[in-house]
């Protein structure tokens, strides 16, 4: 039977979501896939590796799925779509998996939280256009603005993981985004469509 790393990762993530990360063993993953541990270890070194790229599939899908961005009414709305997609997937995977991803990266930088070039380039273009259209009034370098937004997102996400039972961080992040970008009053409440 042929297996791929992607199949292993998908199965493991589903088990983590169903039972909790700490309640799933490598043997549980092998049993679910009907493979042996040596087979699994040909593809991954440990359980942590299976959750380190949760963002990548979301970002790949987001960058390829540009019709949603093109169909939006403003460039600021395009930014909201980008971050609402990230928030939606963060909620889908839950604080348990993201907490584990933070922990793994704190032990050793596994680059899960590095800027992804394709998303960075896309957001820089969107921010430039929003500045030109006066949808946002902060005229700082678009790359620096995007980095600040990305770090604010990660910070809100980390607090959500720490607090565990608190509501998701989406509204708090969107309000930070409005303040950071100095969003024009016309667009101040647009984020509410994404709550």
From TrEMBL:
UniProt keyword Kinase, yes or no: no
One Pfam short name: TetR_N
Organism superkingdom: Bacteria
Keywords assigned: DNA-binding
Entry-linked InterPro entries: DNA-bd_HTH_TetR-type_CS (IPR023772), Homeodomain-like_sf (IPR009057), HTH-type_Tx_Regulator (IPR050624), HTH_TetR (IPR001647)
Family matches, as PROSITE patterns: HTH_TETR_1, HTH_TETR_2
Domain HTH tetR-type: from-to ranges: 2-62
DNA-binding residues: 25-44
PANTHER family reported in the protein's UniProt record: ACREF/ENVCD OPERON REPRESSOR-RELATED, ACREF_ENVCD OPERON REPRESSOR-RELATED
Protein name: TetR/AcrR family transcriptional regulator
UniProt source species: [Clostridium] ammoniilyticum
